[in-house]
Amino acid sequence: MGGSMGSIVGEKITCLIKYATNWFLPLILVCASGGAHMQEGSLSLMQMAKIASALYDYQSKKKLFYVSILTSPTTGGVTASFGMLDDIIITEPNAYIAFAGKRVIEQTLNRIVPEGSQTAEYLFHKENPPQQREMLLRMN
Q: Residue 50, class by beta-carbon neighbours within 10 Å (0-12 exposed, 13-18 middle, 19+ buried)?
């Protein structure tokens, strides 16, 4: 199953977020997942929505601070939900970050995925304008 997210993991993360919300605590989640358990079907996929809903209450209603640390790999439902809904994203060098794997994308879209396009560094440079990248790199 390789670190995939099932309904128990989703419930525990949701409980953690609710606890942090009730006690007005900052939240740091370290993500390392290959996605959702396909064996659990919709039960596993619903964890994305459940966690995102808890984070909405945490961030929007209570205005609390959330940081996610993405390790390699962070893919699938984790990327689609709590991996990217944060105030600050921190990644380990060369972390593999993607919603879908290279093979799945290539088979679905019938296109070649460029080598290295699903690494933290590539996403950092693609998503941030040059001025913001310079500021972020100086902070390191």
A: middle
- More confident: 63 or 45: 63
Please tell me the distance from the alpha carbon of residue 133 to that of residue 124, in angstroms, as a whole number: 8
Tally the C-alpha atoms within 13 A of residue 108's C-alpha that lie toward its C-beta: 7
Give the whole-angstrom CA distance, residue 13 versus residue 5.
10
CATH architecture of 7-100: Alpha-Beta Complex (3.90)
* 36-to-46, 53, 73, 114, 132 alpha-carbon distances in Å: 9, 17, 13, 25, 33
> Taking the domains of the chain in order of start, what are their residue ranges?
7-100
Strand-pair partners of 67:
28, 88
pTM of the entire structure? 0.79
Which residue type occupies 47?
Answer: Q
Q: Average pLDDT, stretch 35-61?
A: 81
Look up tokens 């929007």; give the residue: 60
